[in-house]
Design goal:
- The termini are far apart.
- The protein is 12% helix and 39% strand.
- The C terminus is likely disordered.
- A six-stranded mixed beta barrel has the order 1-3-2-6-5-4. Strands 10-7-9-12 form a four-stranded mixed sheet, with no helix packed on it. It has a three-stranded antiparallel sheet with strand order 8-13-11, with no helix packed on it.
- The chain is built from four helices and 13 strands.
- It has two domains: 94 residues, Ribosomal Protein L25, Chain P (Beta Barrel), CATH 2.40.240.10; 79 residues, RNA Polymerase Alpha Subunit, Chain A, domain 2 (Beta Complex), CATH 2.170.120.
- With 212 residues, the protein is mainly beta.
- The radius of gyration is 29 Å and the shape is elongated.
């Protein structure tokens, strides 16, 4: 069973450009919607706390969101995080309130464990998918999916359907989709330009001279 990690939030009245004041106070504007919040509730969260949460748990963990003024914590998941294209800092967060008896869908990161034998033999590991789309009850939602790739040889691939899933978790999408593969390294062959045969110089006036 996945334990929810607590995050604190406060309700906010400021919206739009006024949210810039939150940044100077070390806060991030966010919204809580979903079960029990059909209209959405504007909230603000502490930037430092949220960045620590993302660093330790990623974006698929179950959250116990403690909103100031609410009677009890809200079970929620992160649905979207908007980042600044310039600074890379978090601009806005969407939280979705969930019911513990209702399955939800989430993209969960895949962690590759151990070095493939093919890589040790000179191959190159190519990763095609960094996360998988799964469905599970909130209590069964994993923060990460681990896959042991130590046995992969050159030419072998790991497919989505081969990634071990915890009890109660269902893979969505194509089970044959390639997560990663070990490929033969490309050898760059230096192209040597072909030397064109020197054209025989035309002897201008040769025929005229012979006729004279």
């Amino acid at each position: 069973m996945t334990e929810a990690t607590t995050l604190n939030a406060v309700s906010r009245d400021v919206i739009g450009r006024a949210n810039r004041r939150l940044a100077s106070a070390g806060q991030i504007p966010a919204v809580l919607y979903g079960a029990g919040y059909p209209q959405g509730m504007p909230v603000a969260i502490d930037r430092h706390d949220f960045e620590l949460f993302i660093a330790h748990h990623g974006g698929s963990a179950l959250i116990s969101l403690v909103v100031e003024g609410e009677k009890k914590p809200v079970n929620a998941v992160i649905r979207e995080v908007q980042y600044s294209p310039v600074k890379g800092s978090v601009l806005h967060v969407d939280f979705q309130a969930v019911r513990m008896d209702q399955a939800i869908r989430a993209n969960v990161p895949v962690r590759l464990v151990n070095d493939p034998q093919g890589v040790r033999a000179g191959g190159v590991l190519v990763v095609d998918l960094h996360d998988l789309n799964i469905e599970a009850l909130p209590k069964d939602l994993p923060e990460v999916l681990e896959a042991d790739v130590g046995a992969l040889e050159v030419g072998d691939s790991l497919h989505a359907g081969q990634v071990p899933l915890p009890h109660g978790v269902t893979l969505l999408g194509d089970p044959e989709a390639i997560v990663c593969s070990v490929q033969t390294p490309r050898t760059e062959v230096e192209e040597v330009p072909e030397l064109e045969e020197a054209a025989e110089p035309e002897l201008v006036g040769k025929e005229e001279s012979a006729e004279e």
